[in-house]
Automatic annotation (TrEMBL):
Region Disordered, residue ranges: 215-254
Family, per entry: Belongs to the thioredoxin family.
Domain spans labelled Thioredoxin: 243-369
Cited InterPro entries: Thioredoxin-like_sf, Thioredoxin_CS, Thioredoxin_domain, TPR-like_helical_dom_sf
Keywords associated with the record: Disulfide bond, Electron transport, Redox-active center, Repeat, TPR repeat, Transport
Organism ancestry: Eukaryota, Viridiplantae, Streptophyta, Embryophyta, Tracheophyta
Name of the protein in its database record: TPR repeat-containing thioredoxin TDX
Ranges annotated as biased composition (Basic and acidic residues): 230-251
One of the GO BP terms on file: response to stress
GO CC annotations, alphabetized: histone deacetylase complex
Single GO MF annotation: Hsp70 protein binding
Length: 369
């Protein structure tokens, strides 16, 4: 028999015909939701199909006596505990389980530092009376005690793994049983793993699937926000482009300073800022050229800069001598000349360093269009 058990794992289905941008399937009642509503929707819970036929309810009995591990165990008590263990094994073979519990508990009290006694009291196949009595919580307590005394106790891991399987704790059970198998494999561990592993794998696959869906939804949110930012930036640019005539009218001096077809000499940082603002208000590309009289490559490329100013008359060509306008050179962190900066809306969009004629003309043509 198969049972459906909810693990609070989250589900999300995808619609191939509608809402392709968001990849979310909505029912008819939610078909009028906006993209923002879709992205904010909680992912629907889903069940994972597990074989829980042998799962039992947790036992709620008071904790069994565990003994005081701080006391010193005498040889007499150690021997007595072994005799009690033997009596318990006899009781188990005769199916006198409660009697076996009493013997093992008395043995634990006499020798509380014995890992094997706790494991024996919790053993599922040969001597675990707690598992046979459907008391997995008690078995886990004994297994934990055994592992605290001996972290390499194969029987401790085996007991705890089998008890966790009885509680439907499939992943934790599989982990314990694999450790037990590596320490000391036996056929019983293999038999239980055949039941435990399929359930553990289903849960793991289910969780990975919905972790991926969560990540995909978060990625869609990020992409949605990115598109919104792009749309807002585009709107702002379009608004700026619709206002050039008003801007010119509001600052006729700056507009008249833009000499079409000519290279404008800049003598200070303040003058440069004024020209860049005028170019921005006119929605024009500005090309800022830093040069020096002692610069050989500058003498090589300056004639081309003048020629390009005549060719691209709607582009603002600005020329700055770094020895004259030292404040402008410092503000732009000029470390070598010639240097060319391409500016739109008072923001640097590209640059060319060096006397590279082809790059200079290509970028002017690219950004002037």
């Amino acid at each position: 028999m198969q049972m459906l058990v909810s693990h609070q794992l989250l589900a999300l289905t995808f619609d191939s015909s509608e809402d392709k941008d968001d990849g979310v399937h909505l029912d008819a009642k939610k078909s009028n939701l906006s993209n923002d509503d879709i992205l904010d929707e909680d992912i629907v819970e889903s069940d994972v199909e597990l074989d829980n036929i042998d799962v039992v309810e947790p036992d709620n009995d008071p904790p069994q006596k565990m003994g005081d591990r701080s006391i010193e165990v005498t040889e007499e008590n150690r021997d007595a505990s072994q005799i009690l263990k033997s009596k318990a094994m006899d009781s188990i073979s005769e199916d006198k389980l409660h009697e076996a519990i009493d013997h093992l508990t008395e043995a634990v009290m006499l020798n509380p530092s014995s890992s094997i006694l706790y494991a024996t009291r919790g053993d599922a196949y040969t001597s675990s009376v707690y598992v046979k009595l459907n008391k997995p919580i008690a078995a886990i307590r004994d297994a934990d005690a055994a592992l605290q005394i001996n972290p390499d106790s194969a029987k401790g891991y085996k007991i705890r793994g089998m008890a966790r399987a009885m509680l439907g704790q499939w992943e934790a059970a599989a982990k314990d049983l694999h450790v037990a198998s590596n320490l000391d494999y036996d056929e019983e561990i293999g038999m239980v793993l055949k039941k435990v592993e399929p359930n553990a794998h289903r849960i793991e696959e289910h969780r990975r699937k919905y972790e991926r869906l969560h990540k995909e939804r978060e990625q869609r949110k990020i992409e949605h926000a990115r598109k919104q930012r792009r749309g807002e930036a585009k709107y702002e640019r379009e608004m700026k482009m619709e206002q050039p005539s008003e801007s010119k009218a509001s600052d006729p001096e700056a507009a008249s300073a833009l000499k079409e077809g000519q290279v404008i000499g800049i003598h200070s940082a303040g003058e440069l800022e004024k020209m860049l603002k005028a170019a921005s208000k006119s929605s024009r590309l500005a090309v800022l050229y830093f040069t020096a009289t002692w610069c050989g490559p500058c003498r090589f490329i300056s004639p081309l800069f003048t020629t390009l100013a005549g060719k691209y008359q709607k582009v603002v060509f600005l020329k700055v001598d770094i020895d004259e306008a030292t404040d402008a050179a410092a503000r732009w962190n000029i470390s070598s000349v010639p240097s060319f900066f391409f500016i739109k809306n008072e923001e640097e969009i590209d640059k060319v360093v060096g006397a590279d004629k082809s790059s200079l003309e290509r970028k002017i043509a690219q950004y002037a269009s």
